[in-house]
Amino acid sequence: MTRRTQTPRFDTVVIGGGLVGLATAYHLTRTGARVVLVEKEDRLTAHQSGHNSGVIHSGVYYKPGSLKATNCRAGRAALLDFCEAEGVPYDLCGKVIVAVTEGERPRLQAIYERGQANGVACELVGPERLRELEPHVAGVAAIHVPDAGIVDYPAMGRRLAERAQEQGLDLRLGHAVVGIETQANSVTVETTRGAVRARMLVACAGLHADRLARMAGLAPDVQIVPFRGEYLELRPEAAHLCRTLIYPVPDPAFPFLGVHFTRMIHGGVECGPNAVLALAREGYGWGNVRLRDLAETLGYGGFRRLAMQHWRMGLYEMHRSLSRGAFLKSLQRLVPAVTRADLRDGGAGVRAQAVTRDGALADDFVIHATDRQVHVLNAPSPAATASLAIGARIASQVEERLDGARATSVAMTSR
Asked: How far is it, in rounded angstroms, from Cα 273 to Cα 5?
């Protein structure tokens, strides 16, 4: 009997050990499904899920009715329940979104109205209340969002994996995917350490999501363009300058929220991130260059169109990346008391941003499903906050397809 006709050992193979992949595996194993998760790194949450700022987003920014809006709100509630039950550290410290000038008031008002439409607890406040919340912030108005917070996302990922393993998850670290083949009743995933067969495939590959989709025979209409976000940190003696989370009013032309101040769950304050083109899909610094990745980005028509539209912003972000003074100036716009001496180097993360062929930044989560496969093609912020809701959504899609396949099989057998 050949491999093509053998019964798959697993119901679902999940590719990717970030929060979305782990949440999907967690939900699937709770249904009794046989699940295997393969991850190319030797640890979980190695990339986007472990390199973000650790913020629990409230859903205030997102277009009402979008996948980001609905999954952020549902995911936040599920995240808090999970962290309470599992002892994962979190803190609902709240945040302020600050209008520094009168010209930013209309955009602040628009964000507030979105927050109201999305059911987010938030209020518009004036300068006096803003000073009570954040004494060192300069602004003419702000939105106070008390239910925003911070969490230990790597710890959450580890607990999701542990709970899923208790329900039978086969977790395989250090298994890089090198090939995907779809058969009539299964999918075979070739890895550097052997093949895995399952009835369904779920790919939550983050920075490599489009590559995995193409490897599986699909033709996604987006390509991942990696943007690096770099952080500075406040030195301990300056940490008092930030009590909660301090955000600027974002530029609506970009999906990035701008340089902000973030209290960290294990102490300290991060400042950032900026957003510069990464020279590798996992390029966490200017010295990380991978020619294949860079050529793929520069050769993509969608990226070239994006660059032509926003080259000024791109040059400014590069300048801010290379100049501590420019970075400091952005921070002082929100907190004038910050000085160069208050700052030290922090970490960096890389955002997997899907870009369409016409040069648009995909503004919502993008999930593509076929009879045998589900691919998460765009899941930037607030995907970490929304991970349990996204995972539940994907698990439901998988179960529907598996149930349909079982029903077809039973009908054919009964004949």
From this structure: 50
Q: What span, in angstroms and rounded, lies between the C-alpha atoms of 201 and 8? A: 12
Residues found in the chain: 415
Contact (CB, 8 A) for 380 and 352 = yes
Of residues 365, 389, 395, the one with CA closest to residue 378: 365
Burial track 342-376 (b if 16+ CB lie within 10 A, e otherwise):
bbeebbbbbbbbbbbeebebbebbbbbbeebbbbb
Query: Which segments of 134-189 does DSSP mark as H helices, in order?
Result: 153-166
* Residues of the chain falling short of pLDDT 70: 1-7, 253-255, 405-415
Which residues are CB-contacts of 331 (< 8 A; sequence separation ≥ 6)?
232, 259, 261, 271, 338, 343
Query: CB-based burial of residue 140 (10 Å sphere; 0-12 exposed, 13-18 middle, 19+ buried)?
Result: middle
Residue 197 in contact with residue 388, Cβ under 8 Å?
A: no
Check the CA dihedral 334-335-336-342 and report its sign. negative
CA distance 319 to 69: 33
- Structure-block tokens of residue 317: 């972000």
143 DSSP β-pair partners: 97, 124
Backbone angles phi and psi of 18, in degrees to 5: -85, -175
* Distance separating alpha carbons of residues 251 and 257, to the nearest angstrom: 7
pLDDT of 257 reads 73
Q: Are 11 and 35 in contact (CB under 8 A)?
A: yes
The DSSP annotation for 263-284 comes to E-TTS-EEEE---EE-SSTT--
**Count of alpha carbons within 13 angstroms of residue 23, beta-carbon side:** 27
Alpha carbon 308 to chain centroid, angstroms? 26
Nearest alpha carbon to residue 75 among 398, 407, 382, 396: 382
Q: Could you tell me where the DSSP H helices lie in 123-280?
A: 127-133, 153-166, 209-215
- Give the per-residue pLDDT at 414: 34
Using CA atoms, how far apart are residues 305 and 276, in angstroms rounded to an integer?
Answer: 16
